[in-house]
Amino acid sequence: MVAAAALAVVLTNRPDDSPDTTGSGGGEVFLQNAAATGPDPFTKSTARTESTSASPASLPPRTSSATTEVSGSTPGLYGGTQSVASCDVEQQVRYLAAEPAKNGAFASTLGIEANQVPDYLRSLTPLQLRADTRVTNHGYKNGAATTYQSVLQAGTAVMVDNRGVPRVRCACGNPLTPPVAQKSPKPTGTPWQGYDADQVVVVAPSVTVVNVFVVYDTEADSWFARQHGDHGKHDRPTPPPPPPTRSPSTSASTSTPPSVSPSTPVPCVTVTGDETPTPSGGVTPSPCPSTLSPATPTSSPPTTTPSDTPPSTDTPPSDTTPSDDTTPQDDSSPVTNSPGPESAPVTDGSTAPSAESADGSGGSTA
User: What's the whole-model pTM score?
Assistant: First the structure.
């Protein structure tokens, strides 16, 4: 099936203007191939599928020294194969249970108790990244967790929490936390084909719990829905999410926002006021957390009207009359009043996530 939905990426730009503060590595950012184990792995690989390029969407050029942010609830942010988990969650549980020291370090990195690790892992959803993604990666060396900034290649198998944030890299079993802003990040390692620093994203936590992920299957060129915490057993086909819409203009804009033409879909639905996204195929698409530009802009209603005020009596009469062809100029680039991104900006320090509940209860955004 050819994915026919109009596409857009929900994003904002966050200046990387904070001082360089990380664990090991200073201002370095390690480029990590999807299939590579990488330095200081916590465990052996639990990735079940061969990691391949996920044909990430094309993103608008970022502004100078800025990081692109995308909500974890965005349909199509993650990819995968229907009815196949990208990671063996139970194997990850067994690996850590067999080594209590590693299990304890893993737990402390994510801000949970050691005895909560099995339930925490089982609450995560195995998926694949569809964009090169910036994270803080935590390895294990000399009996303790290590920390380094990393860019994970699109196609990397990860376990995702109920806010849509990647928490475990399956090729090495490493826990993941949000990235640390750096003033002048320096990429290290071998770039993969298609790598572009301007296309790297940061996944921001969804404001509400994601009960269902709308996932794009690159190989089948189709969509499916995966419940939060499910490992593929209850996947079901779902239609492509509806194309994004935008609200009427409330003020004129002097420039046209860049249109987004991704190679494969990462759609969402813009809502205004108290509207609720219309369910499609049993799945409620998530609202767009920020302004977006559809691939084919539509003209907005005129924002000005000809003046009814008669000419001033102090103005001498003219031998020429005003043209009747004068019409207000259409503004083809309205500015929406959509709310900003759903998460706080990347900060100078990694914030350990709280333990997610195993049942992932809460309001659905996807």
Answer: 0.63
